[in-house]
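lol forgot to send this yesterday, sorry. struct tokens for the thing we talked abt
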């Protein structure tokens, strides 16, 4: 039997999630790219059993209160899953969650919420990045829960599903 692959996502509050989902949908329609749920990956592609992941996110969520983090900048890259994204500084709560859930990945941690997946025409992408940067830079995004998501590089994006989530501690 093949191990189920999951990722751990930090997810925005419903109002911020709706705003980010709207951006993802607009950009996907504009560029013909996949639609996906906006999220900040705390740990990607792990075969750790779901029960162990549930215990890990519950323990981490008890130690960090829901928090808001301003978008530092909006930028792009050639990486499929980081084609266009909102980047965040490594704040104390983000570092604490990363350390709790993926300590080996802390040195390479680049907290971001992707807004578009896949390659698109460079000039059009640059214009869209400038547009979204003007709209989002400095805007605080409120993060309030951690999800366990059936997702991974080998799983079609349309099949990604949140299988469990836990709220961060109340502020």
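and heres what i got for the seq, position by position
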């Amino acid at each position: 039997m093949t191990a189920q692959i999951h990722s751990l996502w930090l997810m925005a509050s419903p109002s911020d999630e709706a705003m980010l989902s709207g951006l993802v949908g607009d950009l996907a329609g504009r560029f013909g790219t996949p639609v996906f749920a906006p999220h900040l990956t705390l740990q990607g592609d792990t075969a750790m059993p779901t029960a162990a992941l549930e215990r890990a996110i519950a323990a981490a969520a008890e130690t960090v209160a829901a928090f808001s983090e301003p978008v530092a900048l909006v930028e792009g890259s050639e990486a499929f899953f980081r084609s266009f994204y909102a980047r965040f500084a490594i704040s104390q709560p983000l570092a604490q969650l990363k350390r709790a859930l993926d300590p080996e990945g802390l040195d390479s941690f680049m907290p971001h919420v992707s807004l578009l997946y896949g390659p698109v025409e460079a000039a059009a992408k640059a214009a869209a990045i400038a547009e979204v940067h003007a709209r989002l830079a400095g805007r605080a995004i409120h993060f309030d829960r951690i999800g366990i998501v059936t997702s991974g590089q080998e799983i079609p994006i349309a099949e990604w599903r949140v299988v469990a989530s836990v709220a961060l501690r109340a502020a």
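The chain has a mean pLDDT of 95. anyway ping me if u want another try
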